[in-house]
Amino acid sequence: MQTKHNIRRAFRKEFSDWRVWGSRSLVVAFAALAGLVVVGFTWLSEHAFEQFLALCAWRWWAPLLWTPMATAVIVWLTRRYVPGAAGSGIPQVMAGLEPSVAPHQLGLFVSLKLSIAKLVLTAAGFLAGLSLGREGPSVQVAAGVMLAARRWLPERSAVTAHGLLVAGGAAGIAAAFNTPLAGVMFAIEELSRTPEQRSSGLLMAAIVLAGLMAVSVNGNATYFGMIHAAGIDLSLLLPGLLVTLLSGLAGGLFSRLLLASLSGTSPDWFSRMRLRWPVIFAAGCGLAIAGIGLLSGGAVNGSGYSHTRAMIDGSGHSPAIFFFFKFIATWLTAWSGVPAGIFAPSLAIGAALGNDVAQLLAYPQASALIALGMVGFLAAATQAPLTSFIIVMEMVDGHAMVLSLMACAMMARTVARVLSPPLYPTLALAQMQRLPAAHSP
């Protein structure tokens, strides 16, 4: 009898309050909207890059004029109107999750206005031919869309602004990579600071739904396609360890370079010029990227998608210099100050590293080393090994490499931690300096 009474009471508590279900429906609706916005962002970015490729086909020298000019304009617009849209977007979301940030200050880091600006300006970076990704910006874009839901939520709703930011940011990763599980892991590994006890299930469902919206539009395919790694055995051990070590070192160095460049505290001449003439400095970065693009035959421009996919498919062989060119071009893009992410370029850099090692050692299973290079470099650069592992794991055809990928991600992150502090938390602390001085301790 007592059991029956408990069931009735639980049923009444769960279904009697329409406001609870109204809140849940609203969160789900905005999660779906966030996923669709990221899908639109993907289309816009790809279309913009196609226009850049058409420009290159028209005149080989056109990027030498167009890329510096476009980069300067993007940086001027960003600094003049939406400084909160600069960079990756992940540090802004992490800064918005800090307990010291008051609700009325969230607009400095995440808002619907910033989402729109981020979407347009990042797509403009693809149009300029810069070396960038859209995954980090997708985090800020989707977080801004989700955060907009709070104005319609009941005052005492269990869904907080913190929860909406976590769900929105993770939904951006899920929709950008077509991997809902990676979005959930990103929420746990990078964004979640305090447990959302009563609404955690709802927020996780929102993340998965946003990812599924991308899957429903783009199909159940990963961004770089499938990696076919068959016949994996103990012969992978030594080449795999070499790729793990090199990707950890390279990713740690990349993270350290980004932190030193973006902090603005380095005493070198370039940093002083960036601080004093940021738009002119951005034009210089754009010119350097255009030059590298010409030397690489256009391989470094954009996210590196076509070049990396050719390596994965085995239909293209990357020269060893591509690793260096893509590394430098991505660093210069971030240093210029444009809205830009590093996830996809990091995967391209890691793929090139794995491919180079395979060619150097004449290892027959190049695809296996490419997968290890991708997960190792991304884990080292972002110091988010589990998210990196899941993103790359989704690309691998079969389960033979699952343990190898996980071990590579953890070991590469460990190597990178010796060389550099965590990239995104450190940049998030720098974002906190944008808070009004009156609110500083």
Overview of this structure, please?
This protein has 441 residues and is an all-alpha fold. The chain has 2 domains: 19-218, Clc chloride channel, CATH 1.10.3080.10; 227-432, Orthogonal Bundle (Clc chloride channel). It has 19 helices and 2 strands. It has helices at 2-15, 18-58, 62-81, 90-96, 112-128, 135-147, 161-177, 180-191, 200-218, 237-263, 269-276, 278-295, 305-313, 321-336, 343-361, 366-382, 385-393, 402-419, 423-431; strands at residues 227-228, 396-397. Strands 1-2 form a two-stranded parallel ribbon. Helix 2 (18-58) crosses helix 7 (161-177). The longest helix is centred in the N-terminal third of the chain and has 41 residues, at 18-58. It is globular. The model is unreliable at 195-199 (pLDDT under 50).
Helix content: over 70%
- Any low-confidence stretches, pLDDT <50, length ≥5? 195-199
List the total number of helices: 19
Tell me the β content: under 5%
The 3D shape can be described as globular
String of helices and strands: HHHHHHHHHEHHHHHHHHEHH
What is the CA-atom radius of gyration, in angstroms?
A: 22 Å
Number of strands: 2
The average pLDDT value, as a whole number, equals 86
- CATH topology term of the largest domain: Clc chloride channel
Under the CATH scheme, which architecture of the largest domain would be assigned? Answer: Orthogonal Bundle
Q: How many strands, which pairing sense, and closed or not: the largest β-sheet?
A: 2 strands, parallel
End-to-end Cα distance, whole Å, is 57 Å
How many separate domains make up the residues? Answer: 2
Order of strands across the biggest sheet?
1-2
Class derived from helix and strand content: mainly alpha
